């Protein structure tokens, strides 16, 4: 939570607190993860209840002001804040209620994954969550939600049981398989286009609390061999084997030998969602391959695994991201990726290659709005750097790297990891059939496109 001194509100029926330009705490509250975004809302309305959320939506509509929704502030486009408009701030809705017997969690719309993981792990339970603990549950879940344990437990949205939602016309409704099922379909992948979720209810699963996991690190010269080995290994691995590959620069940490620090390396994040002993057996070939220069795979708390990369993704950096799904990964694709990854222009930049398959791929494509379930790979190009003078260099590097991999993409984008790339890329995330269905849903629930400050689905004409 920010250190905010909040002033009284002029928003009708609003029990929350507001910040305006000049108020103490305003500049902290308008900050988002991506330092390239510097927007000044006319008002930041921090909601403390679902009724507050509905009141803020109605206020923005009445005043004809643009509206943004602040969940965890991690959208790389800075969708959480809007210049001169109303920022509906969900960071006051941060409770997590776990029912260990029924194995469900009710999660406030402004929670972060660190909060959810901590609360659910008290009972040895979890739902697939973000790989960085400060990411918002709201944006991540509505965009489908990818996390380390997804091959075993599916995407985050696959464990969503119900949401409470404030609609564009200021009503509070429930969406689930039995109530407003079409809306519930669209909320699982269609992003924040249909309303503001004030409460998510997730099904929980037994995970840990101790599991076998951690990072293996290989020198860049071995990257091609390791990626090829991993590709073949994961294709035959059980669902319990989770993780992914990360082209990174070795951090300036004690466990990294001095000459390697800052050099490009290949990281393999490995984890086994099941008993530790079984994990050693299933991960055995991976742990032995190479062998790795550094191995940090060991029994560890699931929450530690979930925070393992937090330091590698510091807030306050400039960010330019894009992402694609790959339909296959032949040797030529591996070579192309390894060649680009060996020449990063910022030591903070990451390229993550996440395997599909497992539980994700067994959900039918049309069961949720997110419809890219059979792609074997999801690749995220995540460029981060501190200095504005390096913007052009880093943006060009990201675009050129993604372009080098274009021959192997499925043509579908992944909205959780792309920037402002135009309306065609948004439509491409779903394909024509699902996109038409989403447009019809948008027409039904938000015909005036009140929720437009996002990866926007236009209402059906
Ligand atoms: C460091 C970092 C790590 C990440 N790791 C992962 C990862 O492991 N897996 C993954 O899938 N994605 C990941 N992402 C991407 C992330 O899922 C998206 O950026 C997502 O939009 C972030 O959600 P947020 O609530 O934090 O963002 P915000 O910027 O606050 O919100 C983004 C948009 O989401 C919508 N939104 C947010 N909350 C709500 C709500 N309660 N109701 C309705 N709409 C809402 C709004 O449309 C808003 O415009 C990561 C991003 C970052 C920066």
Structural summary, described in words:
The protein is of the alpha+beta class and 461 residues long. The chain has 3 domains: 17-89, Uridine Diphospho-n-acetylenolpyruvylglucosamine Reductase, domain 2 (2-Layer Sandwich), CATH 3.30.43; 96-207, Uridine Diphospho-n-acetylenolpyruvylglucosamine Reductase, domain 3; 210-417, 3-Layer(aba) Sandwich (Vanillyl-alcohol Oxidase, Chain A, domain 3). The protein has 13 helices and 20 strands. The chain has helices at 26-29, 50-62, 113-121, 137-142, 150-153, 181-187, 223-235, 276-288, 302-307, 331-341, 358-362, 391-404, 423-445; strands at 17-19, 43-46, 67-70, 86-89, 96-99, 104-108, 125-126, 160-166, 172-176, 196-203, 205-206, 210-219, 241-249, 264-272, 294-295, 298-301, 318-326, 350-355, 377-385, 409-413. The strands form 4 sheets. Strands 12, 13, 14, 15, 16, 17, 18, 19 and 20 form a 9-stranded antiparallel sheet that branches. Helix 7 crosses helix 10 (331-341). It is globular. Mean pLDDT is 95; it is low at 1-9. Flavin-adenine dinucleotide binds at residues 33, 69-76, 79-80, 90, 109, 130-132, 135-136, 138-140, 142-143, 145-147, 191-192, 196-197, 313, 416-417, 453-454.
Query: What is the CATH class designation of the largest domain?
Result: Alpha Beta
What structural class results from the helix and strand content? alpha+beta
User: What is the name of the CATH architecture of the largest domain?
Assistant: 3-Layer(aba) Sandwich
**What general form does the structure show?**
globular
N-to-C terminal Cα separation, in Å?
41 Å
Low-confidence stretches: 1-9
Oligomer: single chain
Please summarize the sheet with the most strands. Answer: 9 strands, antiparallel
Bound molecules: flavin-adenine dinucleotide
Overall pLDDT level: 95
State Rg. 21 Å
Q: How many structural domains? A: 3
Number of helices: 13
Question: In percent, how helical is the residue content?
Answer: 25-40%
Proportion of residues in β-strands = 15-25%
CATH topology of the largest domain: Vanillyl-alcohol Oxidase, Chain A, domain 3
Number of DSSP strands? 20
């Amino acid at each position: 939570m920010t250190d905010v001194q909040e002033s009284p509100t002029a928003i009708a029926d609003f029990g929350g607190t507001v910040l305006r330009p000049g108020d103490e705490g305003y500049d902290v509250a308008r900050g988002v993860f991506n330092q390239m975004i510097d927007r000044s809302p006319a008002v930041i309305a921090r909601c403390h209840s679902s009724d507050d959320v509905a009141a803020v939506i109605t206020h923005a509509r009445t005043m004809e002001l643009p509206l943004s929704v602040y969940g965890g502030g991690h959208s790389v486009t800075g969708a959480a804040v809007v210049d001169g408009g109303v920022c509906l701030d969900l960071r006051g809705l941060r409770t997590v209620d776990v029912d260990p017997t029924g194995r469900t969690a009710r999660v406030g719309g402004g929670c972060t994954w660190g909060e959810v993981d901590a609360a659910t792990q008290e009972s040895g339970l979890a739902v697939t969550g973000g790989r960085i603990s400060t990411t918002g549950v709201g944006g991540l879940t509505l965009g489908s939600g990818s996390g380390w344990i997804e091959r075993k437990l599916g995407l985050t949205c696959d464990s969503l049981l119900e949401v409470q939602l404030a609609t564009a016309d200021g009503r509070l409704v429930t969406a689930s398989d039995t109530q407003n099922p079409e809306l519930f379909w669209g909320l699982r992948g269609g992003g924040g286009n249909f309303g503001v979720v004030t409460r998510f209810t997730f099904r929980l699963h037994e995970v840990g609390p101790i599991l076998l996991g951690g990072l293996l690190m290989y020198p860049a010269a071995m990257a091609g061999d390791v990626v090829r080995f991993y590709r073949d290994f994961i294709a035959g691995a059980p669902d319990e084997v989770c993780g992914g590959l990360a082209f990174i620069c070795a951090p300036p940490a004690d466990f990294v030998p001095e000459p390697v620090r800052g050099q490009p390396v290949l990281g393999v994040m490995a984890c086994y969602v099941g008993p530790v002993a079984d994990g050693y057996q299933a991960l055995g070939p991976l742990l032995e391959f190479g062998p790795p220069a550094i191995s940090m795979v060991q029994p560890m708390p699931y929450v530690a695994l979930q925070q393992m990369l937090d330091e590698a993704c510091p807030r306050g950096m400039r960010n330019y991201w894009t992402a694609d799904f790959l339909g296959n990964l032949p040797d030529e694709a591996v070579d192309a990726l390894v060649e680009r990854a060996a020449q990063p222009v910022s030591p903070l930049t990451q390229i993550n290659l996440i395997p599909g398959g497992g539980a994700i791929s067994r959900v039918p494509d049309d069961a949720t709005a997110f419809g890219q379930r059979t792609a074997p790979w999801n690749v995220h190009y995540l460029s981060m750097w501190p200095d504005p003078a390096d913007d052009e260099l880093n943006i060009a590097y990201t675009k050129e790297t993604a372009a080098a991999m274009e021959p192997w993409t499925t043509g579908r984008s992944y909205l959780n990891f792309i920037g402002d790339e135009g309306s065609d890329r948004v439509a491409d995330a779903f394909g024509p059939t699902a996109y038409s269905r989403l447009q019809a849903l948008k027409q039904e629930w938000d015909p005036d496109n009140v929720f437009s400050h996002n990866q926007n689905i236009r209402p059906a004409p």
